[in-house]
Amino acid sequence: MSEDCFQELHRSDQIEELLAGLNTDFPHSLHYCMSIKILQAWKDRDPNILLQILVTNPHDLRDGTSLTIFAMSATSAKIYMLYSLESSGEKLKQALLNTNRIDWNSKHCEWEAIHEKHFPMLRQVLESKKCNGQYIPHYQYYMPVKQALDLDLKEQSNVQIVELHEEHASLVDNHWEYQTPESIDYIKACIQLNFGFGVRRVGHPELISWVAQTHYGGVGMLYTTEQHRQRGYADMLVRKFTRHLAKSNEIPSVVVGSDNIASIKLNEKIGYHRVCKIYWVLFDQ
Asked: pLDDT per position in the chain (285 positions), as tens?
């Protein structure tokens, strides 16, 4: 039986070599590289997590042509991510067309953060495989660490910022626009394996606004309860989150739906820089 055109990387030095090459395309490769870095740490702490980092040539990683598959467990929905430094994208296209690593008949999956330069190619592949999905555009943003360290937190005396804990996961999940029957496990991982912050009024235990770090390292699950909006709490949380990352020498980032005008204005006002357009592909389940 012949080998698949995608081979899995197991050695940490090979994965580091792959990431080093992909980082030469920073900040465009930021989402993909941070996903691999963080998900490796998650898998080290939770062996139930599925993580496969697949390349077309494990002996020559210079062009970074790769596919990453992630799921919270063996039965959870799979997330596919990809990237390549090859200008034509032809190597990645041919590998996708011929691989057996992907169940093209399954709708229990999604394609995540496909860079605008790869999106036309992936769309051709999906159409050739008769995979009819919903294409959802987003914008990728980031902020240099030095800039983030100088952010004014704009804290307010009538509220407190507290760390999120596992007991907050249901609250976050119930208000998340992408909630699914499986998403609670993902939210718990974001809080327990990464971090999150919440806002509460002084003297009151209930959270009125919150944010958590996603598996790709960025601002996620940002939400303010309806009766407490327009008071600057989301702005304050994003600033706190951003500077917290910068203090750890991590690059702050955020992904925003291209039609989410309020979030676009918020993040650009804080100082985030738009990098590119990226796409999610979702399937009806």
From this structure: 578 999 999 999 999 999 999 999 999 999 999 999 999 999 999 999 999 999 999 999 999 999 999 999 999 999 999 999 998 999 999 999 999 999 999 999 999 999 999 999 999 999 999 999 999 999 999 999 999 999 999 999 999 999 999 999 999 999 999 999 999 999 999 999 999 999 999 999 999 999 999 999 999 999 999 999 999 999 999 999 999 999 999 999 999 999 999 999 999 999 999 999 999 999 975
Extract the runs of DSSP E, i.e. beta strands, from 116-176.
134-142, 159-163
Query: What's the burial of 91, exposed, middle or buried (CB within 10 Å: 0-12/13-18/19+)?
Result: middle
**Cβ–Cβ under 8 Å, residues 245 and 120:** no
In 10 A of CB 282, how many CB atoms? 15
Between CA 70 and CA 6 the distance in angstroms is 15
**150 by DSSP, 3-state: which?**
coil
Full DSSP string of 180-225: -TTHHHHHHHIIIII-EEEEEETT--SEEEEEEE-TTSSEEEEEE-
Q: In 23-168, which residue ranges form alpha helices assigned H by DSSP?
A: 30-45, 90-98, 119-128, 145-149
Q: Before 137, cis peptide (omega within 30)? A: no
Domains in the chain: ranges and CATH: 7-132 (3.40.630.30), 145-275 (3.40.630.30)
Strands 78-83 and 219-224, how do they pair?
unpaired
Rounded CA-CA distance 267/280 in Å is: 20
pTM recorded for the entire structure: 0.96
**Quick check: 195 and 169 in contact, CB under 8 A?**
no
